[in-house]
């Protein structure tokens, strides 16, 4: 099995560098993530004339205050109108266990117990969005962690005023996004599908 995976990966990378994306596409639809296929790394080495990596993914979550305030639709709309593709979506009551893994880097912070209480106070809407530089772009769209510092026009800048109720989560790096997506979603819950307007949102 490991040998077979290696073989597929090698073949895929060869095809990828040759500019033939058909093999990559078929592997992606078989459930291989872009990072597992070396997509992120390959993106950094491409020549100017080659296509951008439109398959980067990030985790966006509408936090309990956003759900309670009926902001889910407006938040989804912002990502749709920016041109990103929704590939996973679910509403859930997040468990302490999931959140302690999700926020593992913050365990020692004084606000951590209050953060856990807030995040378990009601349902969360978790989403995976896909597109070129979606991690960086969505952080800009979401705005500063502390809404006091968040620019008007960002989600936090428009809908919140306190760091303890900042409405939405967005992964902060491609590596973090991959870790968080695996934590919140099973592979079968993520869909690979082709946007019919793809050539209108970027050069593919
Ligand atoms: N947070 C808080 N008080 C703080 C800093 C952070 O309640 O002083 C919460 C807030 O909900 C924030 C989350 O902890 O979104 C995670 O913090 P992080 O530094 O990762 O910010 P983010 O990546 O969400 O902008
Ligand atoms: Mg963070």
> Spatial order of the strands in the main sheet?
2-3-1-4
> How many strand elements?
4
Sequence of secondary-structure elements = HHHEHHEHHEHHEHH
Provide the CATH superfamily of the largest domain: Nucleoside diphosphate kinase-like domain
Uncertain runs: 7-49
Average of the residue pLDDT scores? 83
Oligomer: single chain
Terminal Cα separation, in Å?
A: 33 Å
**CATH level-two architecture of the largest domain:** 2-Layer Sandwich
Structure classification: alpha+beta
Structure, explained:
With 204 residues, the protein is α+β, with helices and mostly antiparallel strands. The chain has 2 domains: 2-43; 49-202, Nucleoside diphosphate kinase-like domain (Alpha-Beta Plaits), CATH 3.30.70.141. 44% of the residues lie in helices and 12% in strands. The protein is built from 11 helices and 4 strands. A 4-stranded antiparallel β-sheet has the order 2-3-1-4. Helix 1 (2-17) runs antiparallel to helix 2 (22-29). The longest helix has 16 residues, at 2-17. It is globular. It starts with a helix and ends with a helix. The relative contact order is 0.16. Mean pLDDT is 83; it is low at 7-49. It comes from Sander lucioperca. It is a peripheral membrane protein. Keywords: ATP-binding, Cell cycle, Cell projection, Cytoplasm, Kinase, Magnesium, Metal-binding, Nucleotide metabolism, Nucleotide-binding, Nucleus, Transferase.
């Amino acid at each position: 099995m490991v040998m077979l995976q290696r073989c597929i990966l090698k073949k895929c990378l060869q095809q990828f560098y040759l500019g033939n994306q058909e093999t990559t596409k078929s592997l992606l639809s078989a459930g291989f993530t872009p990072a597992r296929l070396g997509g992120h790394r390959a993106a950094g080495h491409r020549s100017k004339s080659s296509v951008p990596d439109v398959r980067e993914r990030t985790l966006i979550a509408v936090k309990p205050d956003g759900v309670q305030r009926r902001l889910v639709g407006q938040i989804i709309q912002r990502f749709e109108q920016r041109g990103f593709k929704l590939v996973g979506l679910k509403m859930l009551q997040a468990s302490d266990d999931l959140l302690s893994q999700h926020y593992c880097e913050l365990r020692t912070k004084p606000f951590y117990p209050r953060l856990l209480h807030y995040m378990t106070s009601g349902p969360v809407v978790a989403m995976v969005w896909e597109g070129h530089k979606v991690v960086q772009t969505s952080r800009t769209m979401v705005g500063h962690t502390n809404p006091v510092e968040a620019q008007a026009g960002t989600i936090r800048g428009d809908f919140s005023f306190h760091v303890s109720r900042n409405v939405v989560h967005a992964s902060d790096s491609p590596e973090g996004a991959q870790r968080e997506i695996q934590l919140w979603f099973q592979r079968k819950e993520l869909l690979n599908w082709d946007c019919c307007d793809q050539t209108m949102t970027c050069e593919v």
